[in-house]
From TrEMBL:
SMART domains named among the record's database cross-references: EFh (SM00054)
Highest taxon of the lineage: Eukaryota
Annotated Gene Ontology cellular component terms: mitochondrial inner membrane
Coiled-coil ranges from the UniProt annotation: 104-131
InterPro entries linked: EF-hand-dom_pair (IPR011992), EF_hand_dom (IPR002048), EFHD1/2 (IPR040365)
Protein name, as recorded: EFHD1 protein
Keyword annotations from UniProtKB, A to Z: Calcium, Coiled coil, Metal-binding, Repeat
GO MF, one example: calcium ion sensor activity
Domain EF-hand: 1-27, 28-63
Species this chain originates from: Ciccaba nigrolineata
C-alpha cells in the first residue's frame, strides 16, 4: 500500500487507486473506482486506510465480492506468478501474505470487539429506557 500512497498520508485516495489499478493492468472508470472505495470504506471518508485495504482480501477470501467488482480484480492481481518473480520473490510474497493474514485475524478480532461493545451499549440504553419508563409510570399514576 505504501508504494501507491504518493501523498504519504497513510491512505489510498481515488487518484492513487486509479494509478494502482493502471499499474496492475486493470484500469477502472471514475465511477468504478468510487464504487471500489465505497465497498470497503467503513468510515465513509472516501479513501482507503490500511485496515480497509486488508478488508478487500478478507472479503475476496470469503467470496463476498461481486464477480465483476474492481476489488475482486485487485485481489486477484495481487497474487504472484512464481515463474515471473522467481522463488525469492515468492518467498517474500508469502512472508508478506502470512503477515497480512495475521493482521487480518487481528482485524477480525477488533471488528468482533467493536460489535460486542456496540451490542453492550445498546443493551445498556434499552435498560436505562425501561428503568426511566418504569419510574415515569410511577409518577403518572
Amino acid at each position: 500500500i505504501r508504494r501507491y500512497d504518493s501523498g504519504r498520508d497513510g491512505y489510498i485516495d481515488l487518484m492513487e487507486l486509479k494509478l494502482m489499478m493502471e499499474k496492475l493492468g486493470a484500469p477502472q472508470t471514475h465511477l468504478g473506482l468510487k464504487n471500489m472505495i465505497k465497498e470497503v470504506d467503513e468510515d465513509f471518508d472516501g479513501k482507503l486506510s490500511f485496515r480497509e485495504f486488508l478488508l478487500i482480501f478478507h472479503k475476496a477470501a470469503a467470496g463476498e465480492l461481486e464477480e465483476d467488482s474492481g476489488l475482486l480484480t485487485l485481489a486477484k492481481l495481487s497474487e504472484i506468478d512464481v515463474s515471473i518473480e522467481g522463488v525469492k520473490g515468492a518467498k517474500n510474497f508469502f512472508e508478506a501474505k502470512v503477515q497480512a493474514l495475521s493482521s487480518a485475524s487481528k482485524f477480525e478480532a477488533e471488528i468482533k470487539a467493536e460489535q460486542d461493545e456496540r451490542k453492550r451499549e445498546e443493551e445498556e440504553r434499552k435498560h436505562r429506557r425501561a428503568a426511566f419508563r418504569e419510574l415515569k409510570s410511577a409518577f403518572t399514576q
